[in-house]
Design goal:
Length: about 220
């Protein structure tokens, strides 16, 4: 597995490196938010291990930013604070798990393995069909060689649907995952985004598209 560790403490980074590399992981390190952001833009990871407190920002804010841009990689927070309120804050920010320092290395490895299994539902790096290329690594959609811009929210919806390609994703799951609520405003926003995605992807035969399954939700079809 490819792991991104965002941690500013050198001793902790070295400890994590020994533990995760011993478990067969390929580890990339970042000590600052800016560096972590660049790594995520340039490569894909199976799990992100993220410290809450960093020199140039908050791990919680970085997590929110990544989720807003459609990054679905599982995130494990590390922190010296383990109060219930702190754990809730991490989960509400979009994190998947929370590990308090100091921790047992065996537990760290087990949690990373568990999160890595979830990443099996991540979107593919690239989808190509009938002149349409969707690059989930560079976050770029091109049709007939022309780039088609998507908003962060549109990428989020498309990435979630593509991760379940060929299967139905309910409106409720989309709203809960990407908006964190099922309000009328969020539902209306989803309708607008679906309309835009269909227009931008097109509906020609053999081209990637999003279809509606009446009464159930939406399905991403890589090609027909």
């Amino acid at each position: 597995m490819r792991i991104l560790v965002v941690e500013d403490s050198t001793p902790t980074r070295e400890l994590l490196a020994r533990s995760l590399e011993a478990a067969g992981c390929v580890v990339t390190f970042a000590a600052r938010v800016a560096t972590a952001r660049r790594h995520v833009e340039e490569a894909s990871f199976d799990v992100i291990v993220l410290d809450v407190m960093l020199p140039d920002g908050s791990g919680l804010d970085l997590c929110r930013e990544l989720r807003a841009h459609g990054v679905l990689t599982p995130i494990l927070f590390l922190t010296a604070r383990g109060d219930v309120e702190d754990r809730i804050a991490g989960l509400d920010a979009g994190g998947d798990d929370y590990l308090r320092k100091p921790f047992a290395l065996a537990e760290l490895q087990a949690r990373v393995r568990a999160l890595g299994r979830r990443h099996g539902l991540a979107p593919p790096a690239t989808l190509e069909s009938a002149g349409t290329i969707i690059d989930f690594t560079a976050w770029k959609l091109t049709k007939e060689g022309v780039e088609v811009p998507l908003t962060a929210r549109e990428w989020g919806v498309l990435a979630l649907l593509a991760s379940r390609r060929g299967r139905v994703v309910s409106r409720g799951e989309l709203l809960e995952t990407l908006w964190g609520e099922r309000s009328p405003e969020a539902s209306a926003s989803l309708d607008v985004i679906m309309s835009r995605l269909r227009r931008k992807l097109g509906d020609a035969p053999k081209r990637c598209r999003v279809s509606t399954v009446r009464g159930e939700g939406y399905r991403f079809e890589p090609s027909l």
